[in-house]
Amino acid sequence: MLEECKSDFPILDQIVNDEPLVYLDNAATTQKPQQVLDVLADYYQKDNANVHRGVHTLSERSTARYEAARQTVADFIRAKSSKEILFTRGTTTGLNWVAQFARDLLQADDEVIISVQEHHSNIIPWQQACQKTGAKLRYVTLKNGELDMDVLKEVLSEKTKFVSLAHISNVLGSVAPIKEIAELVHAVGAYLVVDGAQSTPHMVIDVQDLDVDFFAFSGHKMLGPTGIGVLYGKQELLELMSPVEFGGEMIEFVYEQYATWKELPWKFEAGTPNIAGAVGLAAAIDYLNDIGMEHVQQHEEELIAYIWPKLQAIPGLTIYGSQDLSKRTGVIAFNLDNLHPHDVATALDYEGVAVRAGHHCAQPLLRYLQVPATVRASFYIYNTKADCDKLVEAIIKTKEFFNGPI
Ligand code: 7TS
Fold first, then answer.
1. Is residue 91 lining ligand 1, measured as CB closer than 6 Å?
2. Where are the domains of the chain?
3. Average pLDDT by consecutive 10-residue portion of the chain (406 residues)?
4. Are 117 and 365 in contact (CB under 8 A)?
5. Measured between alpha carbons, how far is 351 from 331 in angstroms, rounded to an integer?
6. Would the CB of 376 count as within 6 Å of ligand 1?
7. Active site positions, annotated
8. What is the third-level CATH fold of 37-290?
9. Which atom, in ligand 1's list, is nearest to the CA of 93?
10. Homologous superfamily of domain range 3-31+293-403
């Protein structure tokens, strides 16, 4: 078990509502270890300067740290080259950039495929691209809480130009078989875009083995700072893509009426980038690499296997998604009796347990599941079996408070 790493996270050592904090809102954002906080302070204390501009020493150091961070990210997701790594604000920006690229390619009668379990940031950019081009947006539905591969096969055709899917659902925690999907998508000549916001923090990612065309994720969900994320794209596709933003840093020559762009990856990074964010993300990746992503995944599997029967034993508790543990990762969305999920989350907060309640930015999914909202507990490396016990105990207390003794 990884439990000893909890002491690396100063924020977790606090009392909330007279109880020790149990942080189970990791799908929304994760906490930062001291090692990442130290690197951020070190960067600002020693090397802060703008990148790719000055010839002075600090600027060179800052540029070196920023570009080393890009290489760290490339290695982490096994990209062929750091040219394929674009720094963004987060998953949302990355998906918007790809959908913007899609607008240049899509024509009326073309089709884009997403699924009913997507986060809004993998729905709305595609709605916009389809509305602007006349292309049709089609949805894959679910079977037993997972993508229904038969439906995917049915809707894929030579009309399909883009397929964009979450690697792991932020509500149901199920993992999509991306490698198999990539084969199907490429067989009809379409591009596969993967929303890796919930997978990259929790499992080994190999973009070459998965053979994805684009892959987006966020630093803050994997121990890094907010405001930094990554869009991976195959080099030949990024070469085809036009920049989405224009300004300083991304140009080669600027004339009165036109300008030329720098080569990859800089043509996409207009303006002063989030340098400290990239350096902090690299520190987070170093931290995760020290643990080993296989161990991160194994730890979460152990926690879920531990808490699952305890949750199942609570009368009136409904868990959404697959009931097959081998198909699940560390996200559990549930409801308790007929209680409103916000009431449950508020009651859990009184016990020091932080969970999220609501639609989790996946309104089409909740409509599909026919539930207005759920409570969601999501786990990460610093969570312990004691945290699981505390969650179960707090749920039982909540149930008894509202409905009387079990
Ligand atoms: N895609 C998925 C699958 C997500 O879970 C999220 C964030 C995003 C995209 C967007 O990431 P961002 O960093 O650009 O905001 N998910 C959540 C969540 O589940 N609760 O809060 C944020």
1. yes
2. 3-31+293-403, 37-290
3. 88 98 98 98 98 90 98 99 98 98 97 98 98 98 97 98 98 97 98 98 98 99 98 98 95 97 97 98 98 97 97 97 93 96 98 97 97 97 98 97 84
4. yes
5. 20
6. no
7. 361
8. Aspartate Aminotransferase; domain 2 (3.40.640)
9. 14
10. Aspartate Aminotransferase, domain 1 (3.90.1150.10)
Token digits of residue 114 = 């997403």
| Pocket perturbation via mutation, ligand 1, pick of 26, 121, 366 by most ligand atoms within 8 A of CB | 121
